[in-house]
Amino acid sequence: MPIDVSQFRGMFFEEARDYVAAFEQAVLQLEKDPSDKASVQEMFRAAHSLKGCSSTLGVNDVAAFTHVLENLLDHMRERSVAVSAELIELLLASSDMLGDLLQRAREGQEPPPGMEPLVHKLAAHVRVQDDAPAEVSHGEDQGTLRGDGRMALEIRCEPNLLTEGLDPLPLLRELYEVAEVESLEADVSRVPDLDALEPERCYLAWSGVVDLEDGPEAVREIFEFVEDTCHVTLAPIEAKAPAASSADETAEALIQKSAGLDRTAGEKATLRVATERIDEMINLVGELVIAQASLAQTAGGLEADEAIAESIERMGRRLRELQQCALSVRTIPLSTVFFRFPRLVRDLAAELGKQVQLEVVGGETELDKGVIEGLAGPLTHLVRNAMDHGLETPEAREAAGKPATGSIQLAARQEHGSVVIELSDDGRGLDTQRILEKARAAGLVGPNETVGSDRLHAMIFEPGFSTAASVSDVSGRGVGMDAARSAIEDLSGTLHVRSEPGRGTTVCVTLPLTLAILDGFALMVGRQTYVVPLLSVLEVVKPAREDFSTVLDRGELVSVRGDVMRLVRMRDVLGHPPALDDAEGLIVVVEVQGERFGLLVDDLEGQTNVVIKGLDESVKTSPAILGGSIQGDGSIAFILDLAGVVRVHLALRRTPALATPESESPSGI
Prior knowledge:
The structure is a single chain. The chain is of the alpha+beta class. 40% of the residues lie in helices and 22% in strands. Helix 1 (9-32) runs antiparallel to helix 4 (85-106) and helix 3 (60-77) runs parallel beside helix 5 (115-131).
């Protein structure tokens, strides 16, 4: 019965994206070091795997293009094509074309008109180089296989060979072209019974005798790009050939001896699961956590005996561990986003006439898949801004006593249950005086208002705000940084800027590990519980009456330890009647968009972890409310969007709100 390969198309496009990313990274590495043979091999491996997968699934445009590209890469492996700036540009254009072809194939569209001219360029480059004398490099390390003449050969395939898009038969045919094969037999001892056979797994191995007049190098090159999934062992014929019954153990020992490798266990097996299933699992685990909290609260009210209380507590610990384990299934490394920036920096540097060195640190840091998918856009805006506004031209840098080449560092780390991403440059830094002038001209700052450096630095994220003297193709319209901040806040993250004139600027992005669970701070407004992100809470204080004041151009203010900030009456924002006495409440100091605000609330419940539940638009009538969560007693706690809270507060300053009766639910809920 033929296999319906169409069911694997979704998986193919996911893996194809990784192949294209690996190809582009190898091209950029080759540009830095033209003698790096490993980069050429990585490009060939990616293109070959992509060709095999696309051909199998009928993605013919990709298969046809990679076939021509693979021909050029094969010549590069043989060192018959010299690495040049023209070749690097051609390879990068091929990477872009592969991405475009895959996107069009996924959407059922025709290939772009630029495909055919690029194919001709690839083929022409090979023909031109074939006419030139080849430069063959003979380094000290000619491979791990040694020996001459008749040799015992063993080929052992990993089970995942076929799922990697590889086919051993073309490799065997090529073996017959470069060597005199005296004998070659298939080892089928690992093939299971028919009812246990999995069509996607490779169970075969081969062993035999070959005569290698030119040494083992030709055989090594055939299998070099599949060395992770197809292990080849060559030994002088005088040595006792490995017995079929212990082929795996003997092959492993020979590989370690000849290649100097210490392979112990194989790579960890992976399983691709639809995101929807993972989300459903996380949701069910969250429901279990809520049910356990309700059970614990009920048992506490009934004064259950010690054994029951201990069992409930133990169950709670295990459920929290299960919840963290379930959430970790959705985490992926930040390198899946970071990989695109070396190419972006390279192209922008050429466009801007600047010399830039990018350093990426902490790409292995893991983050929720949903958060990572929303990061590409804002990080791109931040990198482009650092390239255009932050770094100077080589001439300006040398005049300032700096190296001509500017530096940008993109670093990530886990910190206190969150992920911190810092984008730093060693450029000119922010011009606070120019920012202040622009802010006053735009009405963001009063004529005589004194503004701290933190708030001034945060001004660059205001809508339409730009200090650029002219608009370029890269930036200057004042929309990119605002979009970056909005996207980060949509991910429940925060932005903070540090800058020093002449030394550079650092943009710090702090994000939650997951969007499914919120580390929050629970507070009371009226009789309703609300939760704010713990990342945004700086401190909580009990105010005195003399701490409150009103300033004409800033409205109501509150002083906290000598720091004067805007006062946000949460009862007004959330639609509760005003409190009788401000001094009876508490001030929760939060940072929103680089500015500190004092939230006046009635009471606190403390730090909490809540499972975020979406609210229907017919229920969520206030922009200050992001979502909801069910508490242990079955009541609902509303999760606040602090940026929305500030927007409502500023709108109320312009249009005073009418108080609602205490009996009404907040925000009409």
